[in-house]
Structures are given as structure tokens and as C-alpha cells.
């Protein structure tokens, strides 16, 4: 399943932002899916026609310029290239471009301003006219790491020693790291990451103990709230993040650690930003959006800061590295880098180290903590479900013993509820965007090789063929008539196929242990009557962001 797909680098993860496309559940996904496919095709297949239109318009512009006969010219004519004309004879009424122009009225101004700036720069640097150069006028590209002279017009940035145009890595920095890499790079990084995560206990006893210990710290914190209204976001992300942190950084962070809280705020902020309509527009129209100022740029800076933090951890590890005693994921990667140092084609380089660590840290924090946060809200809306979980916990675990993964098989109801929470909340609704690696026939549509596709997981998670009440919270979806746990092949919150979530085993363990530990010790009390609890996501895009809420945790 899904073997024809590779990961696409979503524009939003590339320059300068992160990811998202319009999302829906139930019936509306069909309409949206159709729309996404059509738009992708319009943009993929329409390239030549748009090129022709631009060539036409360029001719009109050149004619205008001839008319100026070398006299003073202000540059305003540049707008002709980007403005929609009222002349019905002119072909600039192409539907897809019109849509773009309507959506981004600013696009006119930005494109023409870019061209004007380019001309101005050429005037200031007449020697440049002899070269083949592409102007990139954007402050975020002024990175001295990539560009020798970041703040001056220097076409050499885009030319190799033979004067040929070269594409800079700065433009594709996010196609590295396991989550967004493809081909051999992805295979190597995925195999390596899985091996190291398993070595450090993923899916095994040792990580279970780590989670139990961390859940203990969480319970202590929650007790301190003494049943007062509490906003749970960072209580949950701190504890969950410490589990993956102990694998990638070899340590947990103190809950009072301000830097840790800042990191979590950045991760949470990026997940939200990736899910805004801005991000969705960026994904669909990155060609234009990358030149526009606006909210879609925020996540770029957040991710850069997270990368800086990881780079600083790498430095600390490097300074105290003992190849015989790797302490964490970073150490293991560094050892591999040293072993491969004479191999110019190795994937074990600093960039892949930083980005793969970021992938794990990010994915290992936000997904699980958002699911817990959403789950507690759903349980408050359905107190009868919470009551049944309490009952099962009391029967199987009792009030004192720490919950363990072995309890799961004896707790089918709790297991079914956790599955139902994941099904309904659909926390990563379109997985990670993919890219077809060969021409693919999909339900009668030909998707040409290279087409970006967004596998909307909600289309499966809410498929009425598999779930009786697709849009309702109904734990019985995962129970048979005798109350035993019932698997369902349409349960795909971790996606499906070769790129299926790499941290699934860890996530499943965490969800079970956190839900049971919290509910063993507390009853959840909403601040409003259950009927008034709104479970609509705060934002829906790359992620389904749970609504912000407060609750009281009353000791049992
Ligand atoms: C409730 C928790 C989680 C959910 C719902 C979830 C969901 C997903 C989904 C939908 C994908 C995209 C798969 C695709 O490309 O088709 C994914 C990928 C990934 N996840 Fe998770 N995830 C969760 C927890 C975790 C955890 C705890 C980790 C870290 C240990 C993790 C690490 C990753 C990585 C590294 C990838 C990229 C895999 C690749 O491209 O080969 N995830 N996840």
C-alpha cells in the first residue's frame, strides 16, 4: 500500500515555512480531495501554458519599453507583466493565474517590485549584465553560511566555477533528515534511526520504565494544582518530550527549566503555524507566497531556532564523545560520522544529524501530547466513557500499582477508547505530503511522476464503510459484541506503507501509560457542562490542533 509514494518536501517545510493543505473530514473530504488533485494538476500541467502567457506579456512590456525611446522611465510599466488586463484579447485571464491573483492581490505589487529591484541592482552593478544570473531578493536568503557575500549583489552565489547556474542547498535544506528525505538517503536514515531508537529501548521494557518514571513526575505536578483550573498544554508536552529527549539527548529536562519550556513553546507554535490557512496557501502557491511577507514566514524562524538548539547539543556531545559508550542518538550519529569521514557520499553528515534529531524531537513531542490533550477533552465531553475507564483501571490495576503495558490486553475498553480518540482527532490529518515516483493510475486519474499528493488520513479514519458512526466518539468501533478489543484495518493515524510513522511503538506505549496513570489518580472536571464542550479543532491543517481549554484534576 502506498508504495508508489515518496515523501514530498512540503513547501512549508522548505523555504521559508512549514506544511498544510485545506482539510476536512466526513463528506467534505471528497470535495477537498478533488480540489487538491485538480489544483495540483492545473499547476503541474499548466506550466507550459503559463510560460506562453508570460512570454506574451513580456512582449507587451518590451513594446512599451521601446515606446519610451530611451527616455526617462519610472519602472511602473513593470506592472503590466503581472496585472490582470481588462483587454479581452489578451490572454492573461488564465483561470489558475486569476485565482492566484485574486487570492494574493499583493502578488502584483510584489512581483513587479521584485523585477524593479532587479533592474535597479543591475543598474548599480553594470558588470553583472555580462553574466547569466538569477536575482533572489529576499532577506531570509541572506545567510552567510550559504552565501559568501550575503548582503551584496553577487551573482557568483549562483554560479559554479565554470559559470553555470547552480542551485543552492539553502533552497532545499529541509529535504534532509529522515522525515523529508527520499530514496537512498531516506532508507539509510530510517534504518539507522529505527535501530538506534530500538537500541535505546523503543518498544521494549526500558522505554516503558522511562515513561512510567516520567508519568510519575507528571502526576506530582498535577497534584500540585490541587484541583484548581489548569491549562494542560505544557504539563503534557513537558512530560512527553522528556521521553524522546532521553533518547535523543540522553537526558530529561527539569520541568522548571526555562529553556526547555521555550523549546516546547516553539514546537507547539510551529505545529500551530504549519496548520494555519496561511500555511495551506503557502503549500498550494509556494511559487508566489515565498516572496510575500506574512504569517506563513513565522514557522521558518521557529524551526531555525530549534535547529540552532540541536546544533548546540551536538557540539556539547562532540566535546565529550566516548565512542565506546554512546549516551544517546546524537552520540551514535556522531560515531557513524567519524567512521564515514573519508566517504564523500555518506549520509552521515552534520545536516542530516541536526534535521533527523529535530524530526524525532518534534514528532515525538507534539503528536503524543496533542493526542493526550484532545483525549482528555473528549473524555470530559463523555463522562460515561471516563467512568468506564475508571472502572476498568480499578479492576485490573487497582489504586496503587503503576500501570504497565502488559495491562493493555486486559483492558480492552481503555484500549478501544484510546484508538477512538486517535481515530476521531486525526492529529496529523494528511500525514506527511508524498510525491508519486512513477506515473500512477489512481481511480481513473493519471498522476504524472513527481505529482505531490496529500494522503488525507481522515478519508480512511472516517470511512463509513469501516466505522458505523464516523463522526461520533464511539469506542465501540473497536469492540466486538463480547466487549473484546477489535482491530480495524482502517485505523491509520500513523499512516500506512513504507513511510509509516517511525515512532508508532513509542507513541502507543506513551498513550496507554499516560492515559491510565492520569485516570488512575484523577477525575477530570470540565469548567463548563459537558454538552457545551466544543471539540472542533482550534485550527485544522497540517495538524488538527485541539481547542484551548482548562480543566480541574480532582484526586480520586
Ligand atoms: C500519536 C502519536 C503520533 C502520530 C499520530 C504520528 C503520526 C505520523 C504520521 C501520520 C507520519 C507520516 C507518515 C507518512 O509519511 O505517511 C509520521 C511520520 C513520522 N513520525 Fe510519527 N506520529 C506519532 C508519534 C511519533 C513519535 C513518538 C515519534 C518519535 C519517536 C515519531 C516520529 C516520526 C518520524 C521520524 C516520521 C517520519 C518517518 C519517515 O519518513 O520514514 N512519531 N508520524
Automatic annotation (TrEMBL):
Record carries keyword Oxidoreductase: yes
InterPro entries: Cyt_P450, Cyt_P450_CS, Cyt_P450_E_grp-I, Cyt_P450_sf, Cytochrome_P450_fam2
GO cellular component: endoplasmic reticulum membrane
Cofactor: heme
Family matches, as Pfam families: p450
Origin: domain of life: Eukaryota
Keyword set, alphabetical order: Endoplasmic reticulum, Heme, Iron, Membrane, Metal-binding, Microsome, Monooxygenase, Oxidoreductase
Gene3D superfamilies, A to Z: Cytochrome P450 (1.10.630.10)
Location within or outside the cell: Endoplasmic reticulum membrane; Microsome membrane
Binding residue positions for heme: 501
GO MF annotations in UniProt: arachidonate epoxygenase activity; heme binding; iron ion binding; oxidoreductase activity, acting on paired donors, with incorporation or reduction of molecular oxygen, reduced flavin or flavoprotein as one donor, and incorporation of one atom of oxygen
GO biological process, one term: epoxygenase P450 pathway
Protein family membership: Belongs to the cytochrome P450 family.
Protein name per UniProt: Cytochrome P450 2G1
